[in-house]
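Action item from last week, closing it out:
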Amino acid sequence: MSYNIPRVTRPSRDEFLSQFFRPERPVIITGALSDWPCAQAWSPEYLARNFADHPLPVEVLGDDRAGDSFYYRANCRVQDMELQRFLDVAETAGARVYMTQIPTSKLTPRLRDDIGRLDYLPARVTERKELFWMGPPSARSALHYDASHNFVAQIFGSKQWTIFPRVERRLLYLPSAELGHFSPVNVERPDLERYPLYQQAHPIEFTLNAGEVLFLPSRWPHYVRGVDFTITLNLFFRTRSLDLRLLPEVTLRALEKNARKLKKRLKQQLRAS
């Protein structure tokens, strides 16, 4: 299987919906951020100069092991930091600190005003979530998938993406009984003895550069690593048809979660008796 992610310069809304959204094909859109003030102005220096005292939540790890889902889920903690403090810490802590999935509502009004609008959303959107990300070089997100569709707007710096076709989720041991939508496979150091199916997977690698927008459809697994210091915005969204398609999977995962809780409770009762 081979799959290249096309780069398309400012397609019309109808072209995007017919060629990429409805077939659920990933695409990189170039030129779509040319009139966004944040794409022209935002940088670490700009944010430090104008918003140094603004506090935002930061993910903090003891070791540089964000690509290891088990370690990340067990050890990640969140603490508020002022922007200048975060930038200072990032110089020494590196990828152990990362601003991730911050609702844009937590940004200052001035920063929110800098964010433009994408004209590619389909009709009947039932849910949307706009998020802010900022991290030093090598900051990364462990291999996982998201239930929602995703627009990723790269504002500053570049990120290296590794994605996998949705049909290959089982080769990545997804969904995971232990980790949910995170894969137990570490893309940088895969344990092929423990996870042999990963050898059959077909990773698709590309770099998302500043000024580009990635459309990633629902449930495409991905691993992301910063090439430079990066600032990113993303928009998760769902439609009525996606909600209906996700219902069986969501119901099954809820039943499995309840079954694990019941099993754990029964074991505790047996030990106590």
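Closing note: DSSP finds seven helices and 13 strands in the chain.
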